[in-house]
Structure formats: C-alpha cells, structure tokens
Amino acid sequence: MSGTTDGAAVTATPPAGVQIPEEPPPHGLGVSLTPAEAPAKTEGTFPYAADLWAEGLLWAAVLRSPHPRARIRSVDVRHATEMPGVRAVVTHEDVPGDKGHGRGVADRPVFARDEVRHHGEPIAAVAADHPDTARLAAAAIVVEYEVLEAVTDPQHAFEAEPLHPDGNLIRHIPLRFGDAEAVGEVMVEGFYRIGRQDPAPIGAEAGLAVPRPDGGVEIYTASTDPHGDRDLAAASFGLDPAQVKVVVTGVPGATADREDPSTQLSLGLLALRTGCPVKLAATREESFLTHAHRHPTLLRYRHHADGDGKLVKVEAQILMDAGAYADTSAEALAAAVSFACGPYVVPHAVVEGWAVRTNNPPSGHMRGEGALQVCAAYEGQMDRLAAHLGLEPDEIRRRNVMATGDLLPTGQTVTCPAPVAELLRAVTEAPLPELPKDTPEAEWLLPGGPEGAGEPGAVRRGVGYALGMVHMLGAEGTDEVSTATVKVSGSVATVICAAVETGSGFAMLARQIVQETLGVEEVHVAGVDTDQPPAGRACHGRHTWVSGGAVERAAKMVRTQLLQPLAHKFGMSTELLQITDGKITSYDGVLSTTVAEALDGKELWATAQCRPHPTEPLDETGQGDAFVGLAFCAIRCVADVDIELGTVRVVEMSVAQDVGRVLNPRQLQARIEAGVTQGLGAALMENLRTTRGQVRHPDLTGYALPTALDAPDIRIVKLVEERDVVAPFGAKAASAVPVVTSPAAVASAVRAATGRPIGRLPIRPQAAVAQPVQSAQGTQ
C-alpha cells in the first residue's frame, strides 16, 4: 500500500500477522514475458541438433569441391568404401531421379554431376562409425577435375558462356513509373557496391536422420521452413512427402535460411542407404562455403530534383550476384527494384534490375534482402543531393518523405501507416551525445582504441541519417497461410503450430495471445514437426502476422466454446462476459467463476487459419500490388572517424521505428538492437571475401563480426504505434528494417566526417581518409 503526502511517498506497513497476497505475474499482450526456454539455454541444457544422439549412430562427412568451376571427369570412391568402419558412400548416381532442388527454382543438384559451379559444392557423402573415419574416407575419394575459368564478375555473366542449363540470367525487371523522359533542374549520380554478408549463425549446420520402418526417413534439424524442406527432401529421395518427416530442433540463431539443404539431403540419403541413424555436424568452414549469403550488388543511380530539392525522377541500375544457383534471388530482386527509391515521393522512376548466376558462393534469403542494398545507395544519393544544393542531410529527406496514400514506383498505393516524417523528426530532435573528454580513459573512445588510434586531433565526428523500408510477408502472389490449434484442459493451454521459433519471439507471442484471450496463465507451445499443418517460412515477420493471427483466431473460437454455455444459462450474449486473470465475470457482476470451473473437466480445442489479402506479381514494367504491408525506420548515426587512418567508431545510433503495436517491450527492444548491430557489421566489417571464386578465410577469424566492444549506444528514441488495421494485433515486423537502415546511416555519418563519397560497403579504411568535400558533390 502506498500513498503521497505533499509530494513525498509514504509506505504503510501491514499489521502483524496480516499477509498481503502476492500479485500474479503479468501476462498477455504488451507485457515483457521471459522465454520459456531461457533457463535451459542459460544453463546449457537446451537441445540443439548438434547435441542429438541415437542408438547405432553413424557419422557423416561431405566431400566438397575445392574449385569454383570445374568439369568432373570421374569420381572414384573405391578407397573410401574399403576403409574399415565406412558403411556407405553416396554420389549423384545414388540420388533417385535427381531433378534438382532449390527454395525458389529447382536448379541445384544434390551432388554435383558433370560440373561443379561454386567452391564447396557437394560431390559425395560418407557414413562411418566415427566422425574422424567419415572425414578421412571423404578425403580418400578421388575426383578428376578439369578446371574451368570461373565467372566471378556479375557484369561478365551477360556475355559469358552459360554456367547452368537454365542460363546465366535469373530475372530481369525493367520498372517504368511516370514519365521516363522527365528531368530535374539538378542531377546527382553515384556508383555503389555492397559486399557479401554472411548470416554467421551462432551454431553451424547440423542434423540427424533416422530411417523409418515404412521405408521413409525422419530428419531432425534446425529448419526454418520444415514443410518446404520436407517436400524438397521427398522429391530428392524419390519418396512420397508422407514418408519424410522433418522435426525442428532448437534453432541457434537464424537471420537467413537457417540450414544448407545439402546437409539434410546427404543425411537422408545415407540413412536410407545404411538403415541406421546418421548424424552430421558441419564445420564452420563448411558452413561458410555452402549456406546462402546476402547478395553482393552493384548499383548505379541518378537522382533528378528541382531547385528546392524535391525529387523529380530516380534512375537506377541494380545488378545482383546470385552465385551458382537461383535460390530466392528473384524475390530479392523484386524487393530491390520495388524499393529502389526508398520511402520518398518520386513522381517518375526508371529502374533496371538483374539477378545473374556466377561461380561465386551461393546467395539467398537473408534479413532485409534487396532492401538493404538499395537503401545504402538511395541514401547515398540523398546525401549527394543535399551537398549539391547546400541543404542539411535531414532537410533534404524531410522535403521528400512518403506518407500513407502515396504511391510506390510499382504503382501500389501505400495503404498501411507510413509515419516516415514523424520518425525522421524524432531522430533529428533527439539530443546528441557528448564529445569525449580529454582524459586517458577517453582514449578507449577513439577509433581503434589506445593502441590503434592516431592523434586525437585527427578524429572528426560525423552525424548521418537514413530512412529505410521493408515489406512484410511474402510478395508477388505468394499464398501466405498458417494453421494453428489451441487446446485448453484444466488450467493449462497448449498451442500447436508449425511456426518455428528462430529468435523472433513467436513462442512468447503465442503464449501471450492465449493468456489474453482465455485468461489461462500456463500456456505451452508444442514442438514443431511436419505432422502438423504447414505454417510457412520464418521470414519477413510472417509468423507474428500470419501464425499469430491463426493462434488468435483459434483461441477466440475456444473462448466462444467456453463462454456460450454460461451465456445461455444466464440469458446473455458472450460479448457481455469477460475473462481476466483466470476468472469469468459478467458486465453486471451476476456471474463470477473461474475458467477451470467453467471447463468442468472438459477439454476444449479449435483449429484456425490466417491468410492475408492476396498480392500479385509485378508485370513486364514492374507494376503491381506486390506487397501485403510495409514497415519503416529512421536512424541517426553519430560516428568518430580518424581521417588520417580511416578507422571508424560508431558512437551512437538513435532509432525511431514504425512498429504498429508493441506486443512484448523487452523482446522488441532486443530485436531492434540486434538488427542495428547486424547492420553495423554490414557497414564496417562483414564481407566474405573471394579470389576468383575461392572463399578466403572461411572462419570466424578471417570473417569479422561486431562484438560487444564494437556495438555503439543504441537509443530507441521513438516507437510509433499506429496500428495496421489489416494485421492481427496491428503489429509490424520489427527486426529487418533496422538491419536495412543502419548501414546507410553509418555511411552517411562517415561522409559527414570525411567529405568522402563512401559508395562501398563495408567501408574500407582507405575510403574514410578525408579529402576535399567537393568530391562528394553532384553534377549539374
């Protein structure tokens, strides 16, 4: 009990012997729940795929190509099969009717047949009774290669000989919006290059395959799309999908398609061949070589504006390097072309986009694909335009921001909340961080620290801005649907939904939805496997929207089943009853009972689906209503740059984000901070380097990731809760848009500090050495 007297707080002590009941823990939407698996993960007892075991277990190893491109003359497995302890060796000849597989286009063989198309492509797989034996046997396989000239520059892919039977061009989108001949009073142009960011998951790929009595197989792995992986595996094994079951294990981080499909396919084939459980735990090197990365992209831009800085036309050419196979490159290109102008009003646009095959490492889905690359480019153009017109960087953006009701260059009307101006205003008005004081301790605040920084007098502070946008759910006609079942028995509820928890917080969200709808505090979320109805891929915030919507509908159906008998008994509508903290009460207080009493020992359950409104593919001019919803973000970056050495320290990132509705405050904050930090990696350090298609240093020593010492102060200055009426709960995707926006903000801050144009990500030290500001100016 507490009160106030003249502004001073007074706390009353209860009389002796009187116990004040503890308040129940908060639950429901809008509350920061702790993940149910948090204790097990903290204690190190949470089971991941690499921890699995089975009786009679065999170990797998995969032989991978050392060349980015070569013709396979022969594969001799005799030495491997004769080694003691080796139980099976499989190659492309052991794949029943291998017609190829892939998440977007089925163009990738399980094992290379006649030709290898990228460094690390699988050639064969071995199962043995010990992991070292399996690795030695894989190394004993003799492959005769005819090394071919690799095509590694995407610009050369157009005239190069076909690298694949389907050709080198995966997709071309020629977007035309408004008047292609329109020009502005001023024009600025720039060239931008975005590097190959690796998702670098916490745990490398791993899995366990167990043969079934019906001739099928069960695959235990950290899949983010279990039903898609099941169908892919069944087609590769020559089995009916009902004979293949994918069971999702703990997912140790997923900011992309979590698993390399070749891992699952190799395991399944070996389990079917040997009749024994087979396990594979990929090395970090294998993981870097084979899973999908962010598309390296080349972008050329021209921005036309009038004398006041209002945009007139945007011209862009976007070339995405898909690597050896198509994967989801067509989707990434559609996002890049559609968002090529950013969250700005642009009356006219001419955008050409291409995705091409090369002999580089594979590219595919990664958080914010397509949108991140163009954001870095169009925000670079806005900085150039501001410098050319003598305007502040935030002012040029303010004069052009998009709002609800404006048109995308695809011709689609922005019907969802688009508070871009409000987001920009929030970050520009936020207080700036203080300058470091001249003390020895402050040397740690200099770029590179006390051992790496030059003279403090060479450090310049820059302030940069960026506005980003992403789409939510699938696009261009993708049938987004999810199914969920909610069961209630006694005081416990269970949610069954094949939506994979990848760190997005879906499992917590499902608990919160049921708690709020049914008033049941104890809610369990069942594990995911393909015996459940499909819920789709874990990307683009779709599980918050589609799977969360399915859980909500199922919970409301159970609520109706629960309340209808009571409403009928008391002669009132179910709408006049409410459930709070496990109690059912009527509006007039006549009825008061608990949920457990109302259930009276019965089990209630319901199954429901959620399917958002349909979209359509882009047409031959890039026009169409391709997206269900959009999310926006504004970031101000403050960075200190040593203009002599080119070292950069990001001091602070101020974030304002359009979130629709805050469902779990602590989880939302964590998602935004993680997204900003991942974007920081793309801006300053993350780039999987290759030499003629050969991956250099495929490990966490050669591939730098941001650590706690690299992460800046991340201040969430505003969360705009303007609910999207077509989205369940009104919430929007939270983690992708800060990833997209933060690299552009960092580049903007480095431009402000150095006067350099900064057209390449990650930013190399030589690019951040100061030179006259005139170099960043546009052209008339």
From TrEMBL:
<dbReference type="InterPro" id="IPR037165">
    <property type="entry name" value="AldOxase/xan_DH_Mopterin-bd_sf"/>
</dbReference>
<dbReference type="InterPro" id="IPR046867">
    <property type="entry name" value="AldOxase/xan_DH_MoCoBD2"/>
</dbReference>
<protein>
    <submittedName>
        <fullName>Molybdopterin-dependent oxidoreductase</fullName>
    </submittedName>
</protein>
<dbReference type="InterPro" id="IPR000674">
    <property type="entry name" value="Ald_Oxase/Xan_DH_a/b"/>
</dbReference>
<dbReference type="Pfam" id="PF02738">
    <property type="entry name" value="MoCoBD_1"/>
</dbReference>
<dbReference type="InterPro" id="IPR016208">
    <property type="entry name" value="Ald_Oxase/xanthine_DH-like"/>
</dbReference>
<feature type="domain" description="Aldehyde oxidase/xanthine dehydrogenase a/b hammerhead">
    <location>
        <begin position="43"/>
        <end position="149"/>
    </location>
</feature>
<dbReference type="InterPro" id="IPR008274">
    <property type="entry name" value="AldOxase/xan_DH_MoCoBD1"/>
</dbReference>
<dbReference type="Pfam" id="PF01315">
    <property type="entry name" value="Ald_Xan_dh_C"/>
</dbReference>
<feature type="region of interest" description="Disordered">
    <location>
        <begin position="1"/>
        <end position="38"/>
    </location>
</feature>
<dbReference type="Pfam" id="PF20256">
    <property type="entry name" value="MoCoBD_2"/>
</dbReference>
<dbReference type="InterPro" id="IPR036856">
    <property type="entry name" value="Ald_Oxase/Xan_DH_a/b_sf"/>
</dbReference>
